[in-house]
Amino acid sequence: MVYTCHRDKNCQINKVTRNRCQYCRLQKCFEVGMSKEAVRNDRNKKKKEVKEEVVVPESYELSGELEELVNKVSKAHKETFPSLCQLGKYTTNSSADQRVQLDLGLWDKFSELSTKCIIKIVEFAKRLPGFTTLTIADQITLLKSACLDILMLRICTRYTPEQDTMTFSDGLTLNRTQMHNAGFGPLTDLVFAFAGQLLPLEMDDTETGLLSAICLICGDRQDLEEPQKVDRLQEPLLEALKIYTRRRRPNKPHMFPRMLMKVTDLRGISTKGAERAITLKTEIPGPMPPLIREMLENPEAFEDSSDSGESSTPTPPGPPPLLTLSLRERPATL
After folding, report:
1. Which CATH number goes with the domain that contains 22?
2. Among 213, 248, 293, 326, whose Cα sits 20 to 30 Å from the Cα of 55?
């Protein structure tokens, strides 16, 4: 039997991820000293003993702790992100037919809604079990790293393929051209393609919430103070999504790994989104809204470089960042 890695042959292998890539799992076994002959012998042994084996079906039951975790994450998601059927949709005729570099009216509305979405994502994070036990620095690192991931995932779950539109939390519904003109620009078609790829997964609110939490609580983000603690918080989320997904679709075991692959896709889109935010700064007439600027960008990317050789006057310390203030507030009842 020949195994193939569909990535770069360097998949992370641990007790949670070991079944995602058989190739990398086997290579890791060889690295720690397992002989290749043992693989063949073990396979032959299994063939001889196949009649004596009793197949035990995998349990799709959540433990009490995991059930509680699922309920809390699902509640946090639903209370910070109303589903499409709960919204009163409305549209606008603004630049609906032709792509332009930027429609300032749409940008103003989009930036206002994006700021509100970021606040809801912070609220979602604070409601996740264990998140507020992390240091404030790690909470900020995780939120800044995953904010675009979750923003994209959320807006893409509100995609209506029949009209090729996306709907924001206040009900504003934009078509593809309007999304481009509102600020998405060259990112537009990539985002709509991702939204189309989500449709076959038929994710419910609980799965979207769990996947959002997995995007957020991820120990491989740079500059974390306690990455191991973050990993420990993520493990039960992965297990909960796995069991919940397979319990909901017992005949489709491939759905769980397909959902996890979307985390990688989201990171790729977010990287391009961060690049788009930098170019967007040159297109808008004023400064980027403060919370968007703070959350989505490296602040240095927004500093105007000085053409003169004179040294600039040091900027006096300002107030605490908006994100820090938001994290220090107690979760609100929405």
Report:
1. 3.30.50.10
2. 248
